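Lecture notes, structural biology module. Today: joint structure prediction for complexes of two components.
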Amino acid sequence: MSIVEPTRFLTVAFGVPVDIGLLPQVPGGTDGELLTVRWTARLTTSYLPYDPDDEQPG
Amino acid sequence: MPSIESPTSESPAHAEVTDPATISRRALLGTGGAVVAGTALAFATGTGTAAASPSASPTSDPANLPALRDIPHRARLVDYEVVELAALLRAGRTTSVQITQAYLDRIAALNGPFEVYGDNGLYNAFVRIDADAALAAARAADKRLRHDGRAPLLCGIPIGVKDSVAVEGFSTQDGSATFAGNIALADATVVGRLRDAGAVVVGLTICSAFSGSITGTFAGNAWNKDYVPGGSSQGSGVAPIARLIAAAIGEETGGSIMCPSAANGASGIKPSLGTVSIAGLMPLSPGYDVLGPITRSMRDSALILATMLGLDAVNDPQTLSAPIPFPPIPLVARRGRRPLAGLTIGIPQTDWMNVNGVVQVGVSPQATYGAGHLDTFTRLVGQLRSLGAKVIEFPGLDITDPQQNPYFASSTVLATVDGSPVSPSAAVVNANRYEIRYADAVADFCASGIPSAAAVATLTSQYGRQAPGETARSFASADRFNGGIPAAVRYEGEQRRRTLIANYTKALADHGVDFMVVLTLGDVIGKRAGGGPGFPNFRAYYQVPNAIAWPMVSFPVGYVSGLPVSAQFWGPRFSEPDILQAALDYQANFPDYNHAAPTDPAATAPAAKAKIAPQAIPAAPGAPEDPGPSNDPLIGEAMTRAATP
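The predicted structure, tokenised, for the full assembly:
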């Protein structure tokens, strides 16, 4: 399986958005709770620099 | 002409609901009542030039074009709407080459010199064109029309594209000579889609410097070139009305499609975030930036939007947030005397106006309108009611209230990064800018040797940052700030943005409002020269539809002092079919406003060489553009805070 690479459009090489603006179709105040174990969606943790508020895996 | 009457057009479009999720789903997916019923049927029937073909793509189905017998005689070829030209092309009454040449002739006579990021003395709607390429594309379109009976409806239609959008081979400069040499290596996704449909790209339309002003002075207003054109998509607003092009593509971050549409009396659409791919756009504030059409009629803009929209998962994942498939875009008006029956259109009373630089908090918007604009708005309300709509005043949402608007109006500092405070909206916008290499990409361009030293200084000022304690602006400083916003802080900003959206949605639902009607410009606009206010009276929080990702359409509803008065419909995210259908119905019943044509300014000898931009950086004559109100949401945030007690 090949990975489709983003297109470079301009000499000024702006990047391709990854996470931005992915607002839900139904804007609620939260991401919702589906299970007793309350995992919630988190934005951008893979893409931004180190977040001091994050718990680091051991 | 209208083709059908919705069988459910008398049923209420805002059934009683209390669950916010249900409200949102109904509103956002357009599952409520009359409008969607009409929308769905609009594709299946028609009185066009060919028999309806339910299986055909709506944007290729001639049933969505006016019948030849319904097309009025217009004085010039350039006066016909896009859909009328499409019908005439299919009937062999004209050719794309003839149409394209007619517009090129007017550009040569009335645009003035190209490559002038300033007042060039004439319309200055196009900053650069390629006439040879346009005519070659027109010849190809004519050939396609001869051999392909199912060619897309836009085949052969000349268009212009904002100077911030990639059109392969063109230098793309976002309103500034400093970006000379930023060559488009590939068409932006929307440009590619339009070309695939056979549209003829003539050139790039001028915009405010770095898309940063909603008033603008580079172009001249289509109705009087001595007045401001609206920005930042200045040329895209001017060119269709001045009959320099059939249609144009604009970009909006905060008001940049709506303001030029309003100022020139054009019919423009600012889509919801995610409806149309922005891949290939020079970004201003990713997460707000959208692309949309500006034309002479809503049916033209609807056709272009329907051709442009759609999934672009690789190059713009924001399109993943739109419904798939997107609800059908209506392309024709509904038949019947009361097509808006069942709709409740709200006039938000807390949609404060800015009058001569002062935000009129606590004053009804209508109370601030100039006399002519108030008369026109009152007439519009009567017209909408005559078409069956219920039009009510309702509170709307007070953007200056931090309880209602914790995104823009809150004074909360979520974090301090590299010495600078991070507000909720900065947490979103700056992090988004980091993600798309907003400063990095320009830094690389500056290091490439393409821009001059002076251009590098300007670009560093525009895209760089000066941290506390630093002596100069730099890209590295911008990177530290944009990239240093912690994920948790960005998350908090995003959540506050969602809360604002939810609150605005509830404000409409509480009063059964389907969508709103406003005047973005509440009084006669200002002069292009002289430094006076471009917009003496405008919606102070014109950026709110961008912040909450909702769609908006603008269309002319009258004229005062020889300049257009334009109204806007706007409503919940992805309600494009609803507000477009209402605007289509309005224009079908009151066609005089959008069919009016301005008188040409005194023409000069052709002064423009119709070729791709030269690499040399031209000097912009005259003073720098008055920046006017900014298109930047962070500036908007500051405006909001300034008005908050």
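Point to remember: The first strand of chain B starts at residue 126 and ends at 129.
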